[in-house]
Amino acid sequence: PVNRLCTAFNNQTGFLCDDRATCILASQVCDRVSNCRNGEDEQEKLCGDLPRSLPGYLYFQCSNPAYWIYANQKCNGLNDCGDCSDEMGSLAACPPCGLEWWSCSPVFYEYCSCIPRRLCRDGVQHCLSWSDEYIC
């Protein structure tokens, strides 16, 4: 098999088309739209049994085995898996917020979020995990 791993824009995981010049996002593979000139991103052998028919570098298996996402959706600040497994771990930590900001706990968040520290322990929930009221 041909190695089609490439780096798409914004340093995201991509799929290299037959022309060896076009690199499309992993999430553009098997999306029912031919993004490569020859349509190789929509071939039956690639898309026939998702995600098992995909090369491992193109997808991420969520903690819940019933769900998977494309590799470029991992660590994007969104809870694509529904259980935050795509946003946890050292590679998926939220970016630092800064000195005057609090980073909401990464255990139950839907989006990476920073709140001003002055909102900590003000009796109002600003983080989905309530970490701004109990930990901050």
Automatic annotation (TrEMBL):
| Topology of the protein relative to the lipid bilayer | Single-pass membrane protein
Q: What does UniProt give as the signal peptide span?
A: none
Pfam families found in the cross-reference section: LDLRAD1_C
Its localization reads: Membrane
Q: Which UniProt keywords apply?
A: Disulfide bond, Glycoprotein, Membrane, Receptor, Repeat, Transmembrane, Transmembrane helix
Q: Does the keyword Membrane apply?
A: yes
Which SUPFAM superfamilies does UniProt cross-reference here?
A: LDL receptor-like module (SSF57424)
* Residues of the LDLRAD1-like C-terminal domain: 95-134
Q: Where are the transmembrane segments?
A: none
SMART domains, per this entry? Answer: LDLa
Q: Record's superkingdom?
A: Eukaryota
One biological process GO term for this chain? receptor-mediated endocytosis
Any single GO molecular-function term of the entry would be: hormone binding
GO CC annotation: what is one?
Answer: receptor complex
Question: Where is it mainly found?
Answer: membrane
InterPro entries documented for this protein: LDL_receptor-like_sf, LDLR-related, LDLR_class-A_CS, LDLRAD1_C, LDrepeatLR_classA_rpt
Q: What is this protein called?
A: LRAD1 protein
Q: Which organism is it from?
A: Centropus unirufus
